[in-house]
Protein: AraC-like DNA-binding protein
Organism: Paenibacillus favisporus
Amino acid sequence: MPEIRGFIGTHDKDWEDERQWSHPDLEITVVLEGSGRFVYEQEERRVEAGHVALIPSLSAHSFHAMTPIRFGVVLVDGLPAHVRELFERLVVLGKPRLIALSRLDQDRYERLFREWLRSRSSTLKEPVRNDLAWIEILLLFLNEHSHPDQQSFTVSHTGDYIRRHLQEPIVIGSLAEMAGLSEEGFRKRFFKAYGMTPKQYQQMCRLEEAKWLLSSAAKDMQAIAEQIGFAQLHSFSLWFKKTEGCPPSEWRTRQRRDHH
């Protein structure tokens, strides 16, 4: 029978583990806020919000706060082989490993984690099956969205920046400087992380935001156009029709007809 525990731990800046601990559980700890140090064997790494520590069973380790810090912790023993394999994909040679989530993905992971904790406080007909399903979802999410090195982590922040500033043009030089890379290095890193160019990523984000606003907000077309970076309604309409196959007004009408 699997044993699964999860909790959120909050500590002040002077907190630290008394010594290196080891336990039979697989551990997944995400730093939700603050920064600190993660120590295992003879290695020491700085951790901050968005870093995830994946700790195999019986691996001695410790955490040490540098600022007030908050962790989301999952401890699991007895996972079925197909779920355990998802964890093992994320670690290397059975040793603890740090990976990084972008700010957006950290927020998504935290929402999933909190929803799982809420589900555990409910009266469930099949609590073990429910727990296992959630752990599989969390591990699948980490496999899809984690970044194995600091440069990829930094590049992911430029993706967050693009999504938050859809009204602004793409300036490769500024994004590369933000990531601490040359323009050519940034282009290669970005494509490796997202499978598309920064401009293509911006267009994808604009389309997603336009559809969200068209389907869920009462804003007029001009306001929506301006919110995603088009000063002229005509330019927005032409772009949307070319991308989606119909004008935005027609798309909104279809959505309202199909969902009401």
